[in-house]
Amino acid sequence: xxxxxxxxxxxxxxxxxxxxxxxxxxxxxxxxxxxxxxxxxxxxxxxxxxxxxxxxxxxxxxxxxxxxxxxxxxxxxxxxxxxxxxxxxxxxxxxxxxxxxxxxxxxxxxxxxxxxxxxxxxxxxxxxxxxxxxxxxxxxxxxxxxxxxxxxxxxxxxxxxxxxxxxxxxxxxxxxxxxxxxxxxxxxxxxxxxxxxxxxxxxxxxxxxxxxxxxxxxxxxxxxxxxxxxxxxxxxxxxxxxxxxxxxxxxxxxxxxxxxxxxxxxxxxxxxxxxxxxxxxxxxxxxxxxxxxxxxxxxxxxxxxxxxxxxxxxxxxxxxxxxxxxxxxxxxxxxxxxxxxxxxxxxxxxxxxxxx
Length: 356
Description:
Blueprint: H1 13-17, E1 39-45, E2 58-59, E3 75-77, E4 84-87, E5 97-107, E6 110-114, E7 116-118, E8 129-136, E9 145-153, E10 170-177, E11 183-190, E12 205-212, E13 243-249, E14 253-258, E15 261-267, E16 284-290, E17 293-299, E18 314-322, E19 342-354
Parallel strand pairs: 3-6, 15-17
Antiparallel strand pairs: 1-19, 2-7, 4-5, 5-6, 5-19, 7-18, 8-13, 8-19, 9-10, 9-18, 10-11, 11-12, 13-14, 14-15, 16-17
């Protein structure tokens, strides 16, 4: 769900109960941002202040243009501290954390509230960048709960007023849902045809791979709903700990990784992953063992000359949500036993630019 999927691990009782944060002073980062060879850190938010940095982020509020963010969600995103706040004292954090909290409460016209923030109009990145976030989806434990770290287009063709989805593309770096607790989904969305920059329900391509927290690679078969809620300390569940979700974005491909384990490589051009570099007009995907790990290779998303989606900058989004049905919402409909508030913690977001 582009609620974004959500994860939870009960860590801070003050967030779960609504009590006052016991730590009033901003935390001091305990580690310096990691350095990568041939990359320079160009943008980051460590969430160590006392409030969301509005020079870097925007609140996106409401329910989307069609009343459900286009994904069948039941929640309303707000700019309240009840849904988006800075938390201190989170276990195993490297300082302060952004907390995005989904609540079951009547607010305006909805029975659930959520948080959604973006860098739209402030920062965007494209090929030549490494983009990462350290996230613990600690309370995403039940079907219908979800959290996502994802990206949408920051540019459009010069002769167009806007860029339609999915012609402009979409990148889902982290998409974690309570109904599939042992896997993350890393994906690209794109269009088969330019179609005069108009939407059609058939005009949607998607290439995604699941990452197994247990085996640290792509599972032998795609997971289905089940196994929720996982045990609190089950390290095979994504909700049990902080993980680093990221992409390395090249001119011809995007590589998806969790904790440095690459599990999905999407190539933009036909033939770059298969058929010896010769295009055959087909979108293909298949798992291969690379460095001892199952990795999904997929191609291609440059289907038309008018716009090549992943050759342009995208802005970042962090969002939570509540699923409204099993057919439209990724992660499925909310179940009655789901526990709220549902908190997800983001320790930091960092962007590195490739040197040269």
